[in-house]
Amino acid sequence: MSPLAELLTITAVCVASGCLGSLLGLGGGTFIVPILTLAFGLDVRLAIGASVISVVAGSAAASPRYLDEGFANLRVAVTLEVATVSGAVGGALLAGHISAHVLYTVFGVVLAFSAVQMLRHRREAAGVAVPVDRIADTLTLHGDVPGGAGREPRTYQVTRTATGLTMMTAAGAVSGMLGIGSGAMKVPAMDLAMRLPIKVSTATSNLMIGVTGAASAVVYLQRGDVVPALAGAVALGTIAGARLGSRLLAVVPTSTLRAVFLVVLLVISVQMLLRGLA
């Protein structure tokens, strides 16, 4: 395959990964690194460099629509981003002192546990009143989620903000130590702890990962791990996919979105466990 044909193929594949990443709030990087390394045989450092650029591109492409349609909660994103960035800085500093195998194993266990808890939590929490949270009231973090199909918007109450901040700090630390996106932990944190609707959780996560991705991109650019042609091909595909995903979020049933997210979460957890045990 010629270099041009390979780049075009990568762009096409990234359309699909960008769409799924935008829908689930994970960012296309979750899928792009395995695809570039396993399917195209690229060096993992170059794959990660391109993936970081794709995360920023996908977030920038999808976030404006999510904000306009009322799915992304900007106040929640800004509040939680403080904890995520702080955790990422601490995680980066600790990266050289903790075994990567241990971190991958712990991360895999946490994701598997989160998937099970998300499934049980929504079944048990149906019809249960949301606890009052003074922090959320003070910061006015509550919002409305569009009803869709002509239905009225549904108001939701944010709760357990302190727990959410703690979980976001941990998510940022894991991201900083392993050099991976933390969207897979951000969505469960908002869904389990703060009781945000799943569509709001994924849209808000998509907004947040762009900020953390931009900070990481600077580091990878300085290291020389970003190949312009590769990053451009990945970014173009991711942008197209993210825009498609932002349109689909309004029409995809909540139950379908949750089911897909849980499956992807379990797949990622298995991958992390295999890396940790290898």
Give short descriptive properties of this protein.
single chain, about 280 residues, mainly alpha, two-stranded antiparallel ribbon, about 0% strand
Query: Judging from the principal axes of the Cα atoms, what is the shape?
Result: globular
Q: Helicity level, as a percent range? A: over 70%
Give me the Rg, rounded. Answer: 18 Å
Largest sheet: 2 strands, antiparallel
Across the major sheet, the strand order is 1-2
Mean pLDDT: 84
Please work out how many helical segments DSSP would assign. Answer: 11
Structural domain count: 1
Intertermini distance: 32 Å
Q: H/E series, N to C?
A: HHHHHHEEHHHHH
Q: Could you give the count of β-strands?
A: 2
Strand content: under 5%
Low-confidence regions = none
| Helix-and-strand structural type | mainly alpha
